[in-house]
UniProtKB/TrEMBL annotation, chain A:
EC top class, as a word: oxidoreductase
Entry's family note: Belongs to the cytochrome c oxidase bacterial subunit 4 family.
EC number(s) per entry: 1.10.3.-
Catalytic activity: 2 a quinol + O2 = 2 a quinone + 2 H2O
Organism for this UniProt entry: Sporosarcina globispora
Listed name of the protein: Quinol oxidase subunit 4
Keywords, in A-Z order: Cell membrane, Membrane, Oxidoreductase, Transmembrane, Transmembrane helix
Keyword Cell membrane: yes
UniProtKB/TrEMBL annotation, chain B:
Function: Catalyzes quinol oxidation with the concomitant reduction of oxygen to water.
SUPFAM superfamilies named in the record: Cytochrome c oxidase subunit III-like
Enzyme class: oxidoreductase
GO molecular function: cytochrome-c oxidase activity; oxidoreductase activity
EC number: 1.10.3.-
Name of the featured protein: Quinol oxidase subunit 3
Keyword terms, alphabetized: Cell membrane, Membrane, Oxidoreductase, Transmembrane, Transmembrane helix
GO annotation, biological process: aerobic electron transport chain; ATP synthesis coupled electron transport
Transmembrane feature ranges: 21-45, 65-84, 91-111, 131-161, 173-196
Catalytic activity: 2 a quinol + O2 = 2 a quinone + 2 H2O
Family: Belongs to the cytochrome c oxidase subunit 3 family.
InterPro entries linked: Cyt_c/ubiquinol_Oxase_su3, Cyt_c_oxidase-like_su3, Cyt_c_oxidase_su3-like_sf, Cyt_c_oxidase_su3_a-hlx, QoxC, Ubiquinol_oxase_su3_dom
Length: 101, 201
């Protein structure tokens, strides 16, 4: 593994950082400066957020590194599944049906 | 606990104990993700319950939010560089980048405290509406994590200064690094689903 890193310049970190900045400002620009519908904007900036979070996990946090890399990946996939159940589930149950009246 | 040391790996992965600690921290982060998911869920349900009080557009200041975002994003990057320097066994570089990271983190906290004071002056407090209760709980929990992270990283820096780079201090540094990146990940979603969502025309 990259024990004795011969590289003296952290190129993947710099790429990740620049990409994060670009994604952040792109999301702000799309949300604040365009006339797209609310739904379309939320889908676009939501996707940009997911891409950016993924970049943090893989490029900065070394998610798949080491002998437990696979375990980490499964753990995070399960966490994402829980997030979707909790967030989407709560909003769905509490803003539709009887709650909507 | 195994005393076996595999020197072909980076310092923080060299002993079984340290590898288990790092794996355990990933599991903890999974639980933290669920904690924040519940807060995002509550905010997502209540975000338009203004109760006659201020709305998103009345209180959010996009310029300040962008400054906070860039501060935290940059601090996540500098934390990455700190770990990069650690892997090169450059203790001085590691500590320098850690200190820069904490300075950026402190800058973020300063901005957030000012933001809360600004909200309170606008008449937007935790008691005003369901929207503001859920907003303050979500932002406050994240801010409390950043505060904790600054204190934690300060203690790790002290250990690095006293003991130098060993498998144990390297593992501790790597774990605070994971925690710090995680805080930035949470912020990405706060930025998108709280601030930008609230300000969409």
């Amino acid at each position: 593994m990259e024990h004795q890193q011969s590289k003296s310049f952290p190129i993947s970190h710099v790429i990740g950082f620049v990409a994060s900045l670009v994604l952040t400002f792109a999301a702000a620009g799309i949300a604040l400066k365009t006339n797209l519908s609310f739904k379309v904007i939320m889908w676009i900036i939501g996707s940009l957020a997911v891409i950016q979070a993924g970049m943090q996990l893989f490029m900065f946090m070394h998610l798949r590194e080491g002998e437990d890399g696979k375990t980490n990946l499964i753990n995070m996939i399960y966490a994402v599944f829980m997030v979707i159940v909790i967030v989407v589930g709560s909003i769905w149950v509490l803003t539709s049906g009887h709650a909507a009246h | 606990m195994s005393a076996k040391v595999d020197t072909s790996l980076p310092l923080e992965y060299q002993t079984e104990q340290d590898r288990m600690n790092i794996l355990g921290f990933w599991v903890f982060l999974g639980a933290e993700i669920v904690l924040f998911a519940t807060l995002f869920g509550v905010y997502g349900v209540l975000y338009e319950r203004f109760a006659g009080g201020p709305t998103h557009k009345d209180i959010f200041v996009i310029k300040d939010v962008m400054i906070q975002t860039v501060l935290l994003l940059t601090s996540s990057f500098t934390m990455g560089i700190a770990i990069f320097e650690m892997r090169r066994h450059n203790l001085k570089g590691l500590i320098t980048w850690l200190v820069i990271t904490l300075a950026l983190g402190a800058g973020f906290l300063f901005m957030e405290i000012n933001e809360f004071i600004h909200y309170a002056h606008e008449g937007a407090t935790m008691q005003t509406s369901a929207f503001l209760s859920s907003l303050f709980v979500l932002l406050g929990t994240h801010g409390a994590h950043v505060t904790l992270g600054i204190g934690w990283a300060t203690m790790v820096i002290i250990q690095l200064l006293k003991r130098g780079l060993t498998p144990t201090t390297a593992r501790k540094t790597f774990i605070i690094g994971l925690y710090w990146h995680f805080l930035d990940v949470v912020w990405i979603f706060i930025f998108t689903f709280v601030y930008l969502k609230g300000l969409v025309a």
